[in-house]
Amino acid sequence: MAKLPSITVTTLDRARLYALLDRQQEDSDEVDHLYAELERAHIVAPDELPQGTVCLGSRVRFCETATGKIHQRVLALPGDMALYPDAISILSPAGAALLGLSVGDTIDWPYRNRTLHLQLLDVLPAEQQ
Q1: Residue 53 domain boundaries
Q2: Is 113 among the domain residues?
Q3: What is the pLDDT of residues 25-80, one digit of tens each?
Q4: Buried b or exposed e, range 26-65, using 16+ CB within 10 angstroms
Q5: Strand 114-125 relative to strand 106-111: parallel, antiparallel, unpaired?
Q6: Alpha-carbon gap, residue 67 to 51, rounded angstroms
Q7: Is residue 17 a part of any domain in this protein?
Q8: Domain named Regulator of nucleoside diphosphate kinase N-terminal: which ranges (predicted)?
Q9: Half-sphere exposure of residue 71: CA atoms within 13 angstroms, side-chain side
């Protein structure tokens, strides 16, 4: 991967993600990348997460810079996908890439035989349906 932006993850999200990753039956690039992301993350208490930083349950607006397409999704664990009609799984390439980013950050994330180029535009609280 190219130079990665710094990321911040809460202690709660880290615990939930390690529990999820430890239960995964098969190896995948996303699982490996998420482990690496958690290892390099700055970890804070949930009430210390800086505003504008992506955590599980955040509504994120991001741009695929290669295409200019803008998406708005809620970052969710696989078991929480039904809570949000516009959820994106933390186990998807874009979902894993967005974890811990701050508004304005860009990241290049490997995906199959190409690279996703993402820019985080905004972080809003998610509202469950």
Answers
A1: 8-125
A2: yes
A3: 777 777 888 999 999 999 999 999 999 999 999 999 999 999 999 999 999 999 99
A4: eeeebbebbeebbeebeeeeeeebeeebbbbbbbbebbee
A5: antiparallel
A6: 27
A7: yes
A8: 5-44
A9: 19
